[in-house]
Amino acid sequence: MFGYVTVQKDELLVKEFNQYKSVYCGLCRKLGREYGILSRFILSYDCTFYAVLLLALRGECPGYEKKICRCNPLKKCTYIKNGEEALSKASALSVVSVYFKIIDNIADTKGVKRIIYKALKPIFKRWSKKAKNKYEYIYQAVREMSESQFRCEENPNCHLDMAAEPTAKMLSTVLSKEGRNSSERLVLSNLGYHLGRWIYLIDAADDFDDDLKKGSFNPFLVYKEKENLREYFSQVLNNDLAQTYNSWNLLSTSLYSGIIDNILLKGLAAKQNSVLFKEEKRNGD
Q: Please, where are the H alpha helices in the chain?
């Protein structure tokens, strides 16, 4: 997970933004309780969305309470009161994802950065082992994603769909576990698959210029001579956005539906435009 699954704050009702923030702060508190104070630094919008979706599927309002902020004792935050299972799963996905990202970074980087990642690895290994004991299916899904991604990037014939497949399958597997029946599992599997594809591909598009300069792997590099390259990126990504939202519309939920609509319809689109057309924005176009 890379931090791209965000809300479009200006388009949310005040009540909805406060609810979203309460889940975000609740996840921060849960990370600290289950994995220690330092784990709060890996808090992400992606895993907050995962928690919001799990709470929406549960369909019961968790309630809210104001307490001292765990990171700034001079202010108070609103936290959700219940929803412990959703927050616990989102915390586990956070630490396991970062652990395997660190392993990848150790293999891909050199110098001081590599030393830092090696120093961090034992901490995240301990956290991920704890997460594995609670939710082995999350650990295994992320591990398989990491291993498959490595094989794909080592394959000289790796193409766009092949490169995006591991992340798509990982999120498909994780979300499908939340279905209450076969139909819901199928819908959640499809939602996770296309959202996972989008996350991987938007990250690849974001890194395109740097990877082109460094000669690093990027599935979009085979299209570097293509005219209107950013528009092509947009077309590919828009297909997964549409499939993700179509799947969401098949689910019968009301809790947090406005927040999830905002993320899938507006937040992801705004993030995509920001990534793909940042040069035009800098030039005032």
A: 14-35, 45-58, 84-108, 111-134, 136-154, 160-176, 182-206, 208-214, 229-249, 257-261, 268-276, 278-282
Q: How far apart are CA 163 and CA 238, in angstroms?
A: 17
Q: What is the mean pLDDT of residues 107-126?
A: 93
Q: Evaluate if residue 92 carries a pLDDT over 80.
A: yes
In this structure, what DSSP letter does residue 157 have? T
Query: Which tokens go with 224?
Result: 């570097």
What residues make up the domain containing 186?
9-282
Instruction: Give pTM, 2 decimals.
Output: 0.94
CATH number at residue 95: 1.10.600.10
d(CA 94, CA 89): 9
User: Considering its fold, how many domains does the chain have in total?
Assistant: 1
pLDDT at 72: 82
